[in-house]
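Lest this sound abstract, we think one record worth quoting, the chain in one-letter code, the fold tokenised, each line plainly labelled:

>
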Amino acid sequence: MNISLYADIILGLLLIATTWLFYLFHNTRVDDKDITTLSEIVPLERIYPATLIRQAGLSVLRNRMLYWSIKISLVFVTIMMLFEFMSQVSLWTKVGMTISAFLGLDIWLLLKRQVRKQRINHSLEFFISLLIVYLKSGTALSQAFRLSAEYGLAKDHPLADELLLLSLEIESGRDRERAFEDLASRTGVQNLTKLAAIIHIGLQIGSPLVNCLQSQLSSIQQQRQQIVNAKINRKSLELLLPMLLVCFPMFLVLVFFPAAIQFIDLLTVLGDLI
């Protein structure tokens, strides 16, 4: 009895500690301390998914201990729960659940990164439109990015965080090409990679950035229209089967049933004549 009580107390403390560690991990948003290129943190990739964490919008350098602490804590919590409440479960099931607990944080990071990339993609069209307006008014490039992030996007928007870091990089004298490349790699968004390449080419050949941005805006609008058309076509196909299930019985009742009655009547008349 005492052993069971101690196990319950330890399990409760582990659950509290895991929740607290995850809360700290989840709330380490990027700031000006995270102005770093992914090439500088690639050596960590062997033991730490730095790129995944950065693209999920979390601080890389401040989460190294938290990341492994959460994974180890989840494993211990799972093991204790299995032996405490599921002692009759097979060994392979226990091993599978333990491995799932160990990989649970990585799966959550993958989902968080996907949601973040979708939010950035959905806001790019409006952001580029606003950026074009600022550039046409004579605003400097770094200031245009800052103003677009501050007044065009919500404060907690992931694209706003990245653009503010980008403006700080440019204002600090960093090479623009490298800054835009790092922006694309930190987010993992394909459209931002294209935007970085277009701005780089425009700066090299001396083309006005407004024209480059307008071409990228047109490309994003075409992509959005293609996605909308694909969704409409998919919904049309999804609605086709219910319509067939509803309309085909009605077609049988309204068309074939009266014709069948007339055919039966005709056979009856012919039978009487014969």
Observations:
- DSSP finds nine helices and no strands in the chain.
- The chain has a mean pLDDT of 78.
- The two ends are 96 Å apart (CA to CA).
